[in-house]
Write a structure and sequence with these properties.
Layout (H helix, E strand, L loop, with lengths): L2 H20 L2 E7 L13 E6 L5 H9 L3 H6 L8 E6 L3 E5 L9 H17 L4 E9 L6 H13 L3 E6 L6 H15 L10 E2 L8 H9 L9
Parallel strand pairs: 2-4, 2-5, 5-6, 6-7
Antiparallel strand pairs: 1-3, 3-4
Helix pairs in contact: 1-7, 4-5
Bound molecules: guanosine-5'-diphosphate.
């Protein structure tokens, strides 16, 4: 591909992402255990995971341009559930419970595992997990535990750095390099980190485009 056609392809991908995320976005269901998981035939899912306070709700809001998603997921009683949202029936966004907040991270991860392991294991329509990492903190032991769990169930995942606006360019570049070096050792991880800021909007159109590439085709295409 020459420069002009790769630029055109990039623009088209960004537009496809914009259109998908600007369309309808409906709350489907909250699942407390495996029995509650929606039985979707053929739908494609992308899940979002991360430590509590990583900026997951803000990222979901920024992606969809709505407050509804995060408010629904942050409703008391729903924060420890799996929350499913449908983007026009073409892509299901799954908000996984935050982990790593407790003082005893091991116990917390075990709880996270219990809630999500069944989902991750038996979900052929799950195409990607976005694993959110706070750019100020980098990978923490609880993140590494989750990465190990994802490697074991062989679910493809990608690191999404959040709150990039909080970092100066030099330290951010170093963190990206360190994180990419760390994920290179993980078989199910996508090698490239995605850098975002919900506050400034950095990386949001590109993440929409990357996720739209996994979605079911629009009707009539
Ligand atoms: P969650 O617990 O992972 O859902 O995290 P939230 O989305 O609720 O965000 C946690 C805190 O980080 C809140 O105070 C947000 O305002 C802040 N935050 C989230 N995203 C960003 C961002 O991109 N930039 C900055 N500066 N702050 C952010």
């Amino acid at each position: 591909m020459n420069d002009t056609s790769s630029n055109d392809a990039e623009k088209a991908a960004l537009e496809t992402g914009r259109l998908l995320f600007a369309g309808p976005c409906d709350f489907l269901v909250s699942a407390a255990d495996e029995n509650d998981l929606p039985k979707l035939s053929g739908g494609t899912e992308v899940a979002f995971a991360g430590r509590s306070n990583v900026g997951k709700s803000s990222l979901l809001n920024a992606l969809t341009g709505r407050k509804t998603l995060a408010r629904t997921s942050n409703t008391p009683g729903r924060t420890r559930l799996l929350n499913f949202f449908s983007l026009g029936g073409r892509l299901i966004l799954v908000d996984l419970p935050g982990y790593g907040y407790a003082r005893a991270p091991k116990t917390d991860i075990e709880r996270w595992n219990e809630l999500t392991r069944g989902y991750l294991k038996g979900r052929p329509q799950l195409r990607r997990v976005c694993l959110l990492i706070d750019a100020r903190h980098g990978l923490k032991p609880s993140d590494l535990e989750v990465m190990k769990a994802l490697d074991i169930v062989a679910v493809s995942y990608q690191i999404v750095l959040t709150k990039a606006d909080k970092m100066k360019p030099g330290p951010l570049k170093r963190l990206i390099e360190e994180t990419e070096a760390a994920v290179a050792r993980h078989p199910a991880a996508h090698p490239v980190c995605h850098v975002t800021s919900s506050a400034s909007g950095e990386g949001i159109p590109e993440l929409r485009a990357a996720l739209a590439a996994l979605a079911e085709p629009a009707p009539g295409r």
